[in-house]
Amino acid sequence: MIIVTQPGATEKEIEAIIGVLTEHGFDIHRSTGVRHTVIGAIGVQPDFDHRQIELLPGVAEVVRITEPYKIASRAFRQEGTIIDVGNVKIGGDEVVIMAGPCSVESEKQIFTVAERVAKGGAKLLRGGAYKPRSSPYAFQGMGEEGLKLLRKAADAFKLCVITEVMDASQIRLVEKYTDVIQVGARNMQNYTFLKELGKASKPVMLKRGLSATIEEWLMSAEYILSGGNHNVMLCERGIRTFEPSTRNTMDIGAIPLVKKKSHLPVIADPSHGIGIRDKVIPMARASVAVGADGIIVEVHNDPDHAKSDGAQSLFPDQFDQMMKEVRLIAAAIGRSIA
Ligand code: PEP
Ligand code: MN
Questions:
Q1: By the 8 A CB rule, do 188 and 209 touch?
Q2: What are the φ/ψ torsions at residue 298 (nearest 5 degrees)?
């Protein structure tokens, strides 16, 4: 149940509303907006009569949420969530570009790529230091050394950092180096991990699981939100279907759909979404056209010798081309790309 207060409701009235809800055993999630305060009352109380709340002073509206996800739903926050990352706002008019290699491989590599993507207009530098690989024999990432290099390269070119955390034991360490925590597709339903991310101090980008439905994806976001971390963005990175010609099937339709169902920003990952280098730019264009709030894309200075995902990584010149094209699309729909 969502309670929207009247504009100008006093703190005393809001506290009284929260008091009644708490007394009835609801968990409270409060969100203070410019005009209204929105109180999310989470929990199943079959005997509770919501008219009890409607009658209280300061209450404008009581909305019952039928979806299983509550805090993630559009009803909880009508306006889209905007997440501050450094000086960047994710979820506003600007479409934010995150770019970098799949994995951090060396100082020279990450500095070369960081310089190029920063020049091209990226705001966040991506790069994995802990890599979830299908084979235990494949490159697993540079670990903390990789985090240090990523931070150093990002700082040198005034970029923010997004990098993956693979399990709860790494959260505290990675938080020291990153601005956004990436949760990989394979971890989307690791619920104990998601609960811990609810206590993290940094925003989280939650990738959609390989065979996750949109509802399952939003329920996973709900784990993080209900744990207390309200800075969650979603990332469509392609799902597994019967089609083998592309690495994944990028569910472009999920982007506008999720934006209708949820207030959380949605990022598109055309690199993993299609998995073929020369199809990444068109998928990036499509993502912006359907309303993605950001693009995360793999770029490598020498993709043919990359330690992971070289075949889907753009050459720096291709990244520049992508930026040129997505800027045009963004402008056509009243958005911008820096
Ligand atoms: C990645 O971003 O390099 C990655 C491993 O992504 P995903 O979890 O979507 O496969
Ligand atoms: Mn990758």
A1: yes
A2: -90, 130
Q: If you take atom 4 of ligand 1, which residue's CA is the nearest one?
A: 184
Could you state, in order of their start, the residue ranges of all structural domains in the chain? 2-63, 83-332
* Dmax (CA) of the chain: 66
What atom in ligand 1 is closest to the CA of residue 184? 8
Residue with tokens 């009243």: 334
The residue with tokens 């939100």 is 225
State which fold the 83-332 domain adopts: TIM Barrel (3.20.20)
Task: Give the integer Cα–Cα distance in Å for 158 and 120.
Answer: 13
How confident is the model over 67-116, as pLDDT tens digits?
999 999 998 888 999 999 999 999 999 999 999 999 999 999 999 999 99
Structure confidence by residue, pLDDT tens digits, 163-180: 999 999 999 999 999 999
Centroid of ligand 2 to alpha carbon of 131 (angstroms): 8
Torsion of CA 283, 287, 288, 294, to 10 degrees: -110
Nearest CA owner, ligand 1 atom 3: 102
Architecture of domain 2-63: 2-Layer Sandwich (3.30)
